[in-house]
Amino acid sequence: MAYISANLRRKVRERARFCCEYCQNQELVTGGIFHIEHIFPEKLGGKAESDNLDWACARCNLNKGARARFRDPVSGQIVPLFNPRKQSWSRHFRWNSDGTRILGRTRSGRATIIALRMNHPAIVLSRTVWVKIGVHPLPD
Q1: Radius of gyration in angstroms for the set of CA atoms belonging to the chain, rounded to a whole number
Q2: Terminal CA-to-CA distance of the chain, rounded, Å?
Q3: Model confidence over 26-69: pLDDT tens digits?
Q4: What are the CA-CA distances from residue 39 to residues 14, 15, 87, 101, 131 (Å)?
């Protein structure tokens, strides 16, 4: 694993507004560990450079693993996963009406939701509580 300086880690965290760049959960609210994540995995040749790094909750990072592509459940095509450096979250995802589940708008969005298990029952339950206390989802 490549060394990532404290300065670069700080920049990645701040750029993400302290939220997971995949599921949008807030670091402070979750109380969980967040990771510097390689968008294009190191195992596939991805570099530890700013444009290939993002801030991800442990759930999203560990479920993503060394994947860069996954099958879209609607089209059946193998497609690239969402890239937070090159793509807009709101173009590929949206919240359901109560703000607890992430819905895919595109093939990449749908594939990313499945690959990263972004709507796992445990996180949906947590989001339900966060919505009730008014800390989720964050405004754009």
Answers
A1: 14
A2: 33
A3: 999 999 999 999 999 999 999 999 999 999 999 999 999 999 99
A4: 17, 15, 12, 22, 28
Cα-Cα-Cα-Cα dihedral of 43, 46, 48, 53, to 10°? -110
pTM of the predicted protein model: 0.95
Q: Is 122 helix (H, G, I), strand (E, B) or coil?
A: helix
**Domain boundary assignment for the chain:** 6-132
Question: How many CA atoms, within 13 angstroms, populate the side-chain half-sphere of residue 139?
Answer: 1
**E strands in the chain:** 34-38, 53-57, 69-71, 78-80, 93-95, 102-104
